[in-house]
Each structure stands twice: as structure tokens, then as C-alpha cells.
Design brief:
With 292 residues, the chain is α+β, with helices and mostly antiparallel strands. Helix content is 34%, strand content 22%. It has 2 domains: 56 residues; 212 residues. The protein contains 6 helices and 9 strands, in the order ααββββααββββααβ. A hairpin with a 4-residue loop joins strand 7 and strand 8. Helix 1 runs antiparallel to helix 2. The longest helix has 31 residues. The two termini are 13 Å apart.
Length: 292
């Protein structure tokens, strides 16, 4: 889990207090035993270890299974916890992105305040997209950009009907000044307090070969109360794809569309483990997500 920084500090402080309590108790117990002549010097080390284990178990309830944490509703979309596999990245940082009024004529410049997770030491470098998880408050986004209401409604309908595979463009946030060129490897996937769909995609402002520089894994989901929208973007690569983009084969639009119609089943036929990072590893991160 990646808890907020202030929670990690609280855990460290609690740990220091716990250790102080343990050694205070140990000091009293050992002094009593040694003072009464009940322990030889040779037995003191072993006895200290036994007392340490007993006191820690008693203070922490080590034998008890903790109850699952329930997140109160409604959610305020103020953050999330999730498991980060080192095969994906070395570390993650969270920041609050301020709201941006932007230009009403360019909706991709407008967004509410939201929480963004960025990854360092990611499995791939020098890609067009950066690995990100964004948690958007739905009502605030719709109030600023009414069109987002259509995206949320379309995603809800998609998850309800669950066509396999989806035949139309898949709802997507953030809003980009580019078009969804393909979607492939679609899979409906739930996280701890919501559901969504993951897929591979590539966006562009012109026709372009599907390639390792621009291809990405994305997850588009909603919390169960539909208060928060989850958007995850992770660049991925595969040895079967060219490393860089270029105009696709063909001179007419029909020939270019035929290329995309051919590349999608080819992507679908590739094993999930041949991608970097492996798609199943990214799926596990999403499944562990708990929005707060």
C-alpha cells in the first residue's frame, strides 16, 4: 500500500513509542530476574529474546487478524492506496493538481482539482506518455465541462452491457486534443470499491503506425457510488511492434483503415506476458486500488 505521507509519519512515530514501551518492560522484567538470582549470565540473552517476542506480540496483537477498513461514503476523491510491484516502477509520489478554468473553446484545458500519482523508475523510458493515475471528482468535472457527463454515462453503459469486445470508441479521460486510434486487449476489471475497463490504445492527431513509443495501457473506471473517476495510463511495449512511429501503409483512407483493422487482432493475439510491463502486473495494481 502507498499511504499518504502524513500517515507514514504517524506510523513511524507509533513504532518508536511501541519500541520504547517494549524495552521499558523488558528492563523491568530482566532486572527482577537477575536481581533475584534466577538467571545465570549465560541465560540472559536467550531470556531477553523470549521476553521481547512475548511483549511485542502482546502489544501489537500479532496473532489477531485485523478487520478490513471500511471507507465512509460519500467519497471525496482525495486519494487512493494501491500495491506497487517493483516490476512496474521503483516508487510513486502523489500531488494535488489545482483546478484549471482553461479556455471554454478548448475543453482539454479545463479540469477540476484532482489527485495525481506519478511513478519514478518506471519499466520504460523515453515514451510519449508518462505513467500516471488520476482520481477525478465526477460532479466537479461535469460542472466545469458538461461533456464529461456524457463520458461518465457512456462508461456506465459500457460497464453495464459489457460487450466483448467493445465495437465503438471507449470512454476516456483526461480529455486530449487527439483521437483514439485503436483499442485492443480489452478486459473488464474491478478494483476494491469500483469497476472499469482496461485496454491498450494509441492516440494521435494524424494516422500513425501503432508503435512502442506511443502505445499505452489504460484503465477507465468509476467508484461504486460514481463519485470518483479513475484514469490510469501506463506506457507499454512489445517486441512485435516498431519502436518508433511513422505514417501507416497505404495512400487512401480505406487502405489506412484496413491497416488498423489488421493490427488490432494482431495485438489481441499477443500473450499478455510479452508486454513490458506485463499486462497482468498492471491489472494487479488496478485490482488493489482503493479510492478514498
Amino acid at each position: 500500500m502507498i499511504p499518504p505521507t502524513n500517515n507514514r509519519l504517524k506510523l513511524v512515530a507509533m513504532g518508536l513509542v511501541l519500541i520504547s514501551m517494549v524495552f521499558a518492560v523488558l528492563s523491568c522484567d530482566l532486572n527482577d530476574l537477575i536481581g533475584n538470582g534466577e538467571l545465570s549470565p549465560e541465560d540472559q540473552a536467550a531470556t531477553g529474546q523470549s521476553l521481547l517476542e512475548t511483549e511485542i506480540a502482546g502489544l501489537t496483537g500479532a496473532t489477531d487478524t485485523p478487520e478490513p477498513t471500511e471507507i465512509p461514503l460519500p467519497l471525496d476523491c482525495s486519494g487512493a492506496t494501491f500495491n506497487l510491484d517493483p516490476a512496474i516502477a521503483a516508487s510513486v509520489t502523489a500531488q494535488t493538481i489545482p483546478a484549471e478554468a482553461g479556455d471554454p473553446m478548448m475543453t482539454f484545458t479545463i479540469h477540476p482539482e484532482y489527485v495525481e500519482y506519478s511513478f519514478t523508475g518506471y519499466a520504460l523510458s523515453n515514451t510519449f506518455h508518462e505513467p500516471k493515475i488520476r482520481i477525478y471528482p465526477v460532479d466537479e468535472f461535469v460542472a466545469m465541462v458538461p461533456y464529461v457527463g456524457n463520458i461518465v454515462a457512456d462508461l456506465n453503459q459500457l460497464l453495464l452491457n459489457a460487450p466483448s469486445p467493445p465495437t465503438d470508441g471507449i470512454p476516456f479521460l483526461p480529455i486530449w486534443n487527439a483521437a483514439q486510434m485503436i483499442h485492443a486487449k480489452e478486459s473488464y476489471l474491478s478494483f476494491q470499491n469500483g469497476s472499469g475497463i482496461r485496454f491498450l490504445s494509441q492516440y494521435g492527431q494524424a494516422y500513425w503506425l501503432i508503435n512502442n513509443h506511443d502505445l499505452f495501457y489504460t484503465y477507465q473506471g468509476l467508484t461504486s457510488d460514481e463519485a470518483c473517476y479513475v484514469s490510469a495510463i501506463f506506457p507499454v511495449s512489445n517486441p512485435a511492434l516498431p519502436n518508433e512511429g511513422a505514417p501507416p501503409p497505404g495512400e487512401t483512407e480505406a487502405e489506412i483503415i484496413a491497416y488498423y483493422d489488421t493490427i488490432v487482432p494482431q495485438l489481441n493475439a499477443l500473450d499478455d506476458t510479452t508486454f513490458l510491463p506485463p499486462l497482468g502486473t498492471l491489472d494487479a495494481l488496478i485490482a488493489s486500488l482503493l479510492v478514498q
